[in-house]
Amino acid sequence: MVARRKVAVVGVALSDCGRVDDATPYALHAQAARRALADAGLDRSLVDGFASAGLGTLAPVEVAEYLGLRPTWVDSTSVGGSTWEVMAAHAADAIAAGHARAVLLVYGSTARADVRAGRRTGTLSFGARGPVQFEVPYGHTLIAKYAMAARRHMIEYGTTIEQLAEVAVQARANAALNPEAMFRTPITVEEVLAGPMIADPFTKLHCCVRSDGGAAVLLVAEEYAGDCRTAPVWVLGSGESVSHAAMSEWPDFTVSPAAVSGRLAFERAGVRPSEIDFAELYDAFTYMTLVTLEDLGFCGKGEGGAFVEKGRLRVEGGELPVNTDGGGLSAQHPGMRGLFLLVEAVRQLRGECGERQVRRGDGSLPRLAVASGTGGWFCSSGTVVLGAG
Length: 389
Hints:
389 residues; alpha/beta; nine-stranded mixed sheet; two-stranded antiparallel ribbon; 13 helices
């Protein structure tokens, strides 16, 4: 049997993000890809694996062609926001098995600019065929599904709307330390509660921003890590899971598929949640952060509200900094944001985050991180545990 190779993330980058009115999604893909390769200090000729989703009819084929790549390993897995954690897991497995030496993951979207220019409208549903045909006629939009799940948690465990609002408040506090965040002005619980109602119990600030932007991540086999200009960040373990398509098939609205993907990722990495220094979690809505914290094992089921209300998610003074760049609630959210979680996790582990840099109790840099993406309406989850070199 051929020994499995270790896999490192050696290049990460964002394209221009936030308000980008003069670029196409393809251009944002290219910008992020070039920056990630430059970050690693590697030539694109080394890249023989490519993964992309969300653009064009044949995403990895069209985007690879645009980037001038001819990969011999490709992935177009598309499971919503968790796509990129799942793709990273697939890429790591391929590299470890010797099927690729360097895999580039790239995403780009002009979701905000397209709405402003009238090229598209806000997404109300994912269509009316298949299982969702029994929900769409009743106005059961994407946000309504998350809102129903949040309300169920409130009923089951006494979680309060103020506790959910704390997630948004602390995300904004972290964003205030990030010069690239779209919204940096501090907010209060009262301001979150006073906002316009979007889908009960979510007011506007319980919901992610809509932005433009792209991201890229480069993974390589261990023998190439020493050639890079950056310190390697190792992929220690990963897990993936799917739950349901129709809400009627979801056994428990208070349990996300991260309960499975997280357990698998931690087991495969050989670490415990208590050893993690910070977490990057998908946060299209405040409830997603709260329930994912529970399902990854950072607190018990039903204890998420009490966990978040004590300021634990803040970079400054928090016991478990979460979404250190401000997350989708404040930094940027151009669509399938899972790749941005990996970029921020790697930058933190490399100690490159300036004012928002996470430090351990003794002042040293963090050693372990988890990135967990959620897709659809809690339909899928991908979790990756990363370790500093």
